[in-house]
Specification:
Helices cover 40% and strands 20% of the residues. The strands form nine sheets. A four-stranded antiparallel β-sheet has the order 5-4-13-15. Strands 9-10-8-11 form a four-stranded mixed β-sheet, with helices on one face. A four-stranded mixed β-sheet has the order 26-25-28-27, with helices on one face. Helix 18 runs antiparallel to helix 19. The chain binds one RNA strand through strand 7, strand 11, helix 7, strand 12 and helix 10.
Amino acid sequence: MKQNLPTTYEPKTTEAKWYKYWLQKGLFAPNPSLKAEHYCIVIPPPNVTGSLHIGHALNNTLQDILIRTKRMQGFNVLWVFGMDHAGIATQNVVERQLAQENLSRNDLGRKEFVKRVWRWKQESGDAIVNQLKRLGVSCDWSRERFTMDEGLSRAVKKVFVQLYGEGLIYRGHYIINWCPRCHTALSDLEVEYHELDGHLYYLKYPLADGSGKLTVATTRPETMLGDTAVAVHPKDKRFSHLIGKQLVLPIVGRYIPIIADSFVTPEFGTGSVKVTPAHDLNDFEMGIRHNLQQIVVMDSDAKMNERAGKYAGMDRLECRKKILNELQDGGFLDKIEDYKHSVGHCYRCKTIIEPAVSDQWFVKMKPLAEPAISAIRQGEIELVPKQWENTYYDWMDNIRDWCVSRQIWWGHRIPAWYCEKCKQVIVQEEDPALCPSCSNTTFKPETDVLDTWFSSALWPFTTLGWPDWPEESLKSFYPTSVLVTGFDILFFWVARMIMMGLKFMDDIPFRRVYIHALVRDEHGKKMSKSKGNVIDPLDTMEAYGTDAFRFSLTALTTQGRDICLSEKRIEGYRNFINKIWNASRFCLMNLEGYQAQDIAALKLEPADKWIIDKLKQTIIGVSDAIEKHEFSRVALGLYQFFWHEFCDWYLELAKPRLYQADDQIARTTAQNIIIKVLENSLKMLHPIIPFVTEEIWQKLHPDESIMVAKWPDVQEEWLSLCDTDKSDNDCKNMGHIILIIEEIRRIRTMLNISPAKRIKVHLAVQGIQAVNMLKQNSAYIENLGKVDCLSIAQGEGKLPHGATGLVDGVNICVDILGLDLTQEE
RNA sequence: GGGCGGGUAGCUCAGUUGGGAGAGCGCUGGCCUUACAAGCCAGAUGUCACAGGUUCAAGCCCUGUUCCGCCUACCA
């Protein structure tokens, strides 16, 4: 069994080899004949917008750790893979490509454009799959799904139609967030707010009766063209005499009323506010309350339209300047103050969004949210870390209706038609044949598509086969075991999956949500291409190996904190991988004559019991940490055990027995222990670093994959053999011996004794038992302390001249007679 | 405005029910000791943000202050 291996681990060749092997053996798919508890994860589907970033690497590494562990623990495991069509984002990518050819999507037309996006989807999808394979993830590729594939599209239609039928989806004329660049409505969540330095402009509106002027404050003077009122607080005594009077809108000349509305904050600005129902959310609502006209003065590009008169065609910001000039000239501009305020931007293209009124489709959220709130409150779904529950409640308790229609081309068409004759809206899965109200047969189909997150919300059950359930077995994987995701999509995705799962499956979609952090650079800065601090997963895997990369991510994943990743750190863990490699190499090199033996046939030494006890503690700690999803604890516990306990101490302690040939049983014992410890370590390490562990495992067990090896079990005879609770003190004694060795080494260093030099050491301790213990373990001290003459005495002893130390009641004296200490000075 | 998280060794961070202040990297010194120089041995380094309080005992619990980050809101 003796084998020779190179001294440095070479990840590249190894990784490709084993991934292929696993695929060929079909180890990623669930075992239909296995009668075991199910463990299922559905992947957060990556967007088909290009390639994966480090956040994906983290997300999928953590999922793979759970999946691989559970597989080894005997569960019937399914990890569903799939991708998201990512409506706006993907459309933008393809539009940018077209722009390089000086084309727009309109040049192609809808049909051609969508074809082109499908082409891109193929390309991007392949890249994503390859990256994930490179990362070593063990998802079931045979069940790949796409949010726009046939089955999922059918599910989307079905859900839409049912919700519409129940009045939970409606079409309405409301104010929404409009992105003038993407040319589509956005949901509230898709708007990012950023603080901008702006101004507060004070405008003077004259009273129609000539009795004076009323000053309003605004950040957007250009919207005055669409003003249809000025509001004051009903209890504000300064203005109560003006309520009901008319103002003359400067420049425009239109008459607008002064209204009273408690929305107005008397302390802010002048206490009176201009009302533009068509271009501001609050004004819109005030407009409804007071039955005001909505005057739209901008078009879909956020340019002024014909209602803006001479400003028509102007960009909104340009128009602002011109209007201010004109107001100034007319004496309507009172003053301008600097003002910081937050402005909404499109989360996909960062353009400033424009509130606009239009016809859109909405999902009524309150009835869906209530059961989803109680699912968390009742503990049916657990959020890890728990602190996110507050955030969840906060949003869910104040949830607003969800605008789901998008005016883009890439996505699920809304299954609605309009009768060309009577304008009746028809919502159904199939094309209508006959108008139910006028029997007309010609219809205009809805051109809007659905928000991407609408189909994502159905992901946990559509990927498993709903509504057709082509494979009956998959049904039993719902609810899934855990969802692993970032906090940034808690509302976008997690909350909506819970709502839809409860609505359509009548059950939660997952029992637990593990929410991990964002990956930042080593100084905590967000990674971005423009800052140049991006760590690319592929480059990193190329440079340090996939295992080192995965181990780094895992070791840094502590709950409730962002992950700061530096190359230095990855390099450090690369060294750990190499350490594993070399320790394994050492074990394999010393297996001559090895035979697996029953414990009973072995002659265990204190060092053996000590390492077995440490292994046992590690198994308990690691298994527990995985169960609690404390990933950093998993990685660091294994690191500490393997490097510092196994390599630094045990292997050194075991070397004399491995190197000699006289005492066969001593040798066999040491061999059995190192193999036992190595195998158990490899198994626990495998979910984090699958490649190197498989490589070594198969040197011990040719053509038996570690992927399906049994997870370490502390009940096993081997591991229960050293029990510190029982009378056996060998483990504890070994701990004392280690301290003594360390003290001897310290003294050596202090005295500047060359590491190669063998020295004389005298030990003295109270009590015959203690003396016997030291005598029993003297070989360890001699070997690792480089001592060739160790004397052990009871009591104070008569210690000769020398340097002394004291450890746990043991007096240590290094004999300096005969030592050449001249180099000390 | 509201909420959450965080301020621990030069850097990045652990610290699970209060009792020993820790890891990795970096740094210093010594070693090619027959697995590993991507290594081995030894070492230095901290008013645990600040101020009070509870306690025999506080990095950990309570109150206040301050700085940083994030989320959220109808900041005209």
